[in-house]
Amino acid sequence: MSWRNCLSVGLAALAMLIAPARAADMPAAATAPERLLVWHAYRAAEERALLQLLAQFNASQSRYRAEALALPYDVYASKLTAAIPSGHGPDLFLFSQERVAVWARAGLLAPLDADGAELAAGFPAASLEALRSAGHLYGLPLSLKCDALYYNRALISTPPSTSDELEREARRLTLASEGRYGLAYEANDFFHHAAWLHGYGGGVFIEPGHRAQLDSSAAVSALEFVRRLALEDQVIPEEPSGTLVAQLFNAGHAAMVINGPWFAGEVQGIDYGIAPLPRITSTGLLAAPLLTVEAALVSARSPVQDGARALARYLVSTEGAAVRARVGRQVVATRSAYALADIGSDPLLSVFREAAEHAVPMDNTPAMLPVWEPEKRALVAALTGAASPKDALAQAQRRLLATTRAAPPSRSPWPYLAAAALLLLGGLAVARRRAPQSNARVQYIARELWRAAAYCAPAATSILVLVLVPFAVGLGLSFFHHDSGHYTFVGLANFIDILASRDYRISEPMSFWFTLAVTLLWTAVNVALHVSIGLGLALLLRDPLLRFKGIYRVLLIIPWAIPNYITALVWKGMFHRQYGAISALFTALHLQPISWFTSFSTAFAANVITNTWLGFPFMMVVALGALQSIPQDLYEAAEVDGASRWAQFRHITLPLLKPALLPAIILGAVWTFNMFNIVYLVSGGEPGGSTDILVSEAYRWAFQRNEQFGFAAAYSTLIFLFLLGWSALSRRLAREPSAGAA
Amino acid sequence: MSDVALRGVHKAFGENQIVRGVDLEVRAGEFTVLVGPSGCGKTTLLRLIAGLESPDRGDILIGGQRVNDAPPRERGVGMVFQSYALYPHMTVRENLAFALRLRATAPAALAQRVAEVAEMLELGPLLERKPKQLSGGQRQRVAIGRAIARRPSVFLFDEPLSNLDAALRVQMRGELARLHQRLGSTMIYVTHDQVEAMTLATRLAVFNQGKLQQHGAPLELYRKPANRFVASFLGSPGMNFLRGRAQGGRLTGVGFSLQLPPAQSALEGRELLAGVRPQALALRAADEPLDAAACAIRGEIEAIERLGTEGFAYLKTAAGPLVARFEGGGAELVVGANAQLAIPPSATLLFDAQSEEACH
Questions:
Q1: Hey, which of A111, A150, A470, B229 has its CA 20 to 30 A from B174?
Q2: Complex ipTM, two decimals?
Q3: Which of B79, B88, B139 sits opposite A640 (nearest CB)?
Q4: CA of B324 to nearest chain A CA: how many angstroms apart?
Q5: To 10 degrees, the CA torsion angle through A295, A300, A302, A306?
Q6: pLDDT tens figures, A443-454
């Protein structure tokens, strides 16, 4: 087809497409309503409430038409961050105050000062405070979440109003031998602990400068209080997880629980009451919990900001709040809603609202994010008695400083690019010199090559996209420093920082070398166990006279077949000091149950046990296959020569297994070296991060310590280089003249 | 060297009775060959002697001691396997030394013994090689060397030559014979090849279906087979059999009438088989006059095998298919031509037609 024809066809098509669009723009009988896109991550009752409100909003006016889009919670934040700047995002979105400061600074949020001023009196002060950044208000508060005290009415008639009363009541109702506790709550979670910190007059940040200070005297006092509850009064169960707390309360074995409004949904069959948290006797201050606020936020890039703001105001109006409270069961921030009889007298909503009036808003700046991990470690250390509160918090502060380290100085990328280009050219030159081809031959190869390339293309593309591109990105990322979305080139600074182990001693868990040593130990112990157990079982299964071989083989494959994170979680539950199956076994054998995660050796052993359980089938299968390839008459010849069973194993079985086992061992070593699931889920790095291996440390640097992506990428690159060296080395070791069966 | 005795040995694998009540005496220093068709139990018998299987019933004695419950290493036997079973990951030297190493032999004595064996079997230049770098014949010598190194009292060979090509087989046969002469040990050798059996054995034991058919010197078995099976098993091509009834001093059957030796009057009236080896049959032209005493059978030549200086002719006769040997190139013989066979009565062996036992 000539290009002239193409052009005319193209123009005609374009004209046909434009015409209906123009027709849509033509004014019809009335102007079509402008669309308001609302994003949320609600489900079930809350979603129903929202949809009902949007429908009511649309019915009440014709200028705007609101539409809702539900997103999965885990990708919600990243989708917002990506979509809003590009203009494809929502006009209004519902989110907590967590990232207000970051988004405000990035210019993604429209300030709502005008609306805020008008409506200020209608909300608890703390809720508005949570949504402010740099003096401007960026959202209208929808619902409130903070902790309150749940109590079992059958055990407690009046809830305690001071900490001394709380302690007394809890002690009265605790009988550890029967598994009854006065106070069950996730004591290791800083979110729940924060109330005590505030009660003792402390806080996370000190001004000016808005720095986090974790080891203030108030913090120490608060932690000492909880330590007393946990270790001396023993009113708090050990290793309290959310599931355990719910189970105890529902079984009537926990007299009091500290938790948020969501906990009400998990309670079944217990007559319970809710009260605000008590006052601390020694300071007279309320134990003010942390407040998270869910708000309606307006996108700064929205073309219909007026409409979005109108919708936001509707959602927080009395009418809107009433629907959300009744249908969605939210603890709404709008004060006027509580004037309505049914909402005002609702035991859940009214108590939480009252608690929220005195709550402390959770910080909405990025400075809050790196606080959680060190605090958690400090809580665990203090509550298990591994360290005194003072030492634990001092350690936490040191950790925090290490993770929020100043960015390395930025460098110019040009020297590095030049070096990379030189390397590439050098590599090409070497390759060229190694394989001189005549011109004709090169042309021939090139001609034929495209056919081969076409066949390889699909697989090569997948490998490129799924393996090589992420690898290259990671490698590149390791030369940058990341801070709230900004990347600065810092050359080799990340690598130097990791290897020189500044900020912390080499023997401390956060040092690269310490973690490397732990990882090497972890790999060696695991592989040794996998091979010996796998080989032993294979030898047993090989016996031709063994009955039920098929059943054994299936049973022994199951550990490998179960997804390993399920394995990890199951074993973690079994290792629980009080309720785990292993502790029950110990008790049945009249042994003292072990607290597995309070010392390095036992936590390490717990990880090893779990990983061995799931890892030996692989070695067993490889060994079984290899064993079957050894001819039987070799054993007969050896028997005639005078070899005992053990001598036969040593001189015949082992040497002939080597060609098969060696690759399996190399593979197994690499997999174990990078076994993230088990280490992260079973011991979680406890105690104090000492059982973390390199790969879980890298994860923490990326996602738990201020999003230091460049640093984490450098960690990953080091892991890769290490394993590359290991593969090369082991291949050289394995390269003896191979011993094929005669 | 020791003698080996099997007394009433039975062995079954599952439902199959492999060895049925075998009694065998092997004298010290003898080269005894156990021969028979596939599945006759000879290999099982060897493994029973080695200790790799245990008998269900009966006794096995080595050097006068009952060894039923003794494991192989306590029996003082050395075994050469059909597949050689050399340790593939060890050099030839290490293969030879293996058994001695297991007994914690002193390094000097070990090295000396290895050198001796290597010299005996001409393995010197091969000592540092691995089995996969050796040819079939070389591997076999290493396997023999491995068995020799321990100085066992009894050598057991399980069809060691069956994996070799024909020329090599002939050469190795000679070497084995020389080895036996040099070492003078008791050797028990299993094969299905009756040529090997005949040439190597001091004494021969023929087996069929788990039972010992006959035991004695090879020539004795060849000349005086105890039953039809032994008669037809030894010698190649196999013996010809003519079925008939003894009447009036002659054996008469379809298409033939044979003069019986005078001493056989006791056989009068019985159904008999007359066995004649192809080497004893004279092939004559159809019209050639024959000696009156000879029994002549006419027939048509169906196939001719020419082997150079001799050959075999396969004839279809009224008395059944017969094979006869001829001298020379046999150029004058033609397939389809008529010919006659002359049977000398002195060369026939008589067997009872029912029991197939020899009557001579």
A1: B229
A2: 0.85
A3: B79
A4: 43
A5: 70
A6: 777 778 888 888
